[in-house]
Amino acid sequence: MIYRKDKNWMKVALKYAYYAQEKGEVPIGAVLIFQERIIGVGWNSSISENDPTAHAEIMALRAAGKKIKNYRFINSTLYVTLQPCIMCCGAIINSRIKRLVFGAQCNKLDNKCSLKDIFLHSEQDYKLTIKKNIMKNECSDILLKFFQKKRSLML
Ligand SMILES: [Zn+2]
């Protein structure tokens, strides 16, 4: 049951990843869910916004903050198509979301440090549940194809 819900919300996040791709951005999407409702959506916008911090997760958190007029998202779940980078992990800690669900794993990040390490050193009273590999293939395929296309254009 929980898995089906996770898959459904990940499908929405994936829709925003495709949207990012249409805009010429790296195809990553995110949605923030509170009580079965979307309170924030985001997609990578670094290129169009000229903003290195405009990752899908950050954009979703910003949108949610404006919507609910709070900077803390206790009891909410963040769905993102790719494992968050270190900057986004920091934002997740500051936002106090309850669950993080992501699709594809980032190999680059995993070699250096694991998510567990990052969150272990966060605030002591903050506990985050992490679920990975939800729609892993779909989430990594869109990224692989995007970078393959980019590389072929550079040759
Ligand atoms: Zn990030």
UniProtKB/TrEMBL annotation:
Belongs to the cytidine and deoxycytidylate deaminase family. ADAT2 subfamily. Its EC number is 3.5.4.33. SUPFAM superfamilies: Cytidine deaminase-like. Homodimer. The lineage of its organism: Bacteria, Pseudomonadati, Pseudomonadota, Gammaproteobacteria, Enterobacterales. It catalyses: adenosine(34) in tRNA + H2O + H(+) = inosine(34) in tRNA + NH4(+). Binds 1 zinc ion per subunit. This is tRNA-specific adenosine deaminase. Keywords: Hydrolase, Metal-binding, tRNA processing, Zinc. The active site is at E57 (proton donor). InterPro entries: APOBEC/CMP_deaminase_Zn-bd, CMP_dCMP_dom, Cytidine_deaminase-like, tRNA_aden_deaminase. Zn(2+) binds at H55, C85, C88. Residues 4-126 form the CMP/dCMP-type deaminase domain. Pfam families: dCMP_cyt_deam_1. Gene3D superfamilies: Cytidine Deaminase, domain 2. Catalyzes the deamination of adenosine to inosine at the wobble position 34 of tRNA(Arg2).
